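As described in the Methods, two query proteins were run sequentially through the folding procedure within a single session, without resetting any intermediate state between them. The first query and its resulting C-alpha cells are shown here.
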Amino acid sequence: MPAGGNSTFPEIPADTQVMLTAQTDGNCTFEYWWVDDGPSSLENPQTIAMNSDHTAEAWCSPVVTPTPTPTPSGYSLTVISQGCCPVLVRGLPGGDQTVLAGGNMTFTGIPSGTLARVTAQPGVGCKLDYWMIDGVRDPSNPNVTPDLTKYLTINSDRTVVAVCVVFTPVTLTVTYNEFCPLYYCPIMVSYSGGGGTISPGDPPTEFTGIVPGTVVTLSIQSGDCDGSPYNWNLDGVPQGYIPEVWQITMGANHTVEAMCGQFLEG
C-alpha cells in the first residue's frame, strides 16, 4: 500500500494472524502503529489476531534536515525518566540514545533548530502518566492519554521529564449464563488496548492486563443472530435492565455475566 493511502481487506478468516510492516525510505521515519484507537506500539512488524474487525494506522514522520544557526556552544537538552520507563532520544547529532528508567542525561552542543524526538517506552505493569516539558505539564488535562512520542525544537536550553507509574493490572471476565440459547447475539468487549467477542456456549473469557481506570464497553452485536440477554450480573449482583451498550470503569477485577431465563430455551 503506498504512503498516505489506505486499503480495506475484507473477509479475513477468524483468528488469522495478520502481520503489518511499515516500510520507510530515506524520506520518512517510522514512529508507531495505532490499532483501534488503542495505545501506540513501537513494534514493527505489528501482528494482529483477527477476532473482529480492526483498523490499523502506521504513523511516520518526515526526515527533517534543519539548517541551524547555532550559538557558539549550541544548546542543551536534559531528558529525565521519573519512574519505570526508559526514554529513547532521537534526532540529535550524537545519534540515538536511551535514558534508562529512573535516570537522566543531558545532551549539549545541539545546533539551533534541531528537531529532537523523545519516546517513552513503558513495559508491562508500567504506563506513561504525563510529560513535563520545560516545567509545563503535557497534556495539561489529566484525563487525556499522553502521546508516547514528543517532538522538541531545540532553540534554547530545554528539559523534558517522562513521568511513568507502576500499576497492578486488573482482569475482566465475561460470560453468558447456561440458559442462553446458542442463537443469541454475541457480546463485543472493547477498551483501549484490547477486546474481543463472546458468544453463548463459550467458556468464561478473561481480558487481562487492563490498566485501572480504563473504561470497558460491552455491546450486543447484531447480524446473523436473534435475541439478547435480559439482564447483566456484575460480580454476582443483578444490575437490572441495561441497554445494549454498557460501560464499566475498571478499578478492580470484575466478572460480568449475561443473564437469560431458563424459559427462553423452551
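Immediately afterward, the second query was submitted; its sequence and C-alpha cells are:
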Amino acid sequence: MALKLSAIQEPQDVREITLDFGDAGTIEMTVDPNRFNIGRQRKLRQAIKDNDTAAQADILFDAVQSWDLTDDDGEPLPLDESGIDHLTVDTVLAIAMKMSEALGVPKSGTSTESPAHSPTPISTRSTSSKGSKSRSRNTSNS
C-alpha cells in the first residue's frame, strides 16, 4: 500500500505575523505556510537569482491571506496585482525579506535585503482561524 503524503506531512497552522518597519509602523499579515512549499522556494530562489522582483513578489504574496497595509488615503491595498503593483522595489524586497524570515525560508547566497530597510523584529503566532479583519486575498486558486 502506498504511503500518502498527508500521513507524514501535517498541515501547518496559518500564522499571524507582524513586519516591523520601525518608526514607519508595522504590517500585520495572515500567512499560510502550506502555500510556500519546496516548489515555490525553488521559484523564489530563481527569481532572486534573476533579480526579478515582480516574480519574487508574486511568489511570496501568494502565501498571504490578508494584511492591513493601506494606501495613503487609508484604503486597504488589495492583495493582487492592482495593489502590489503600487509597491516600490525597495518595499517589496523589505517585505520579502521579513516574510522569508517569518516563514523560515533558508537564506541563499543572494540577499533580498534592501539598503533602505534594515532588519527589524518580526513576531509570529500560529492560528487555526482563517478569519481576519484586514484586507483578504481570494484563496480559491491553488
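The CA atoms of residues 52 and 139 lie 24 Å apart. We note this only descriptively and draw no conclusion about the first query from it.
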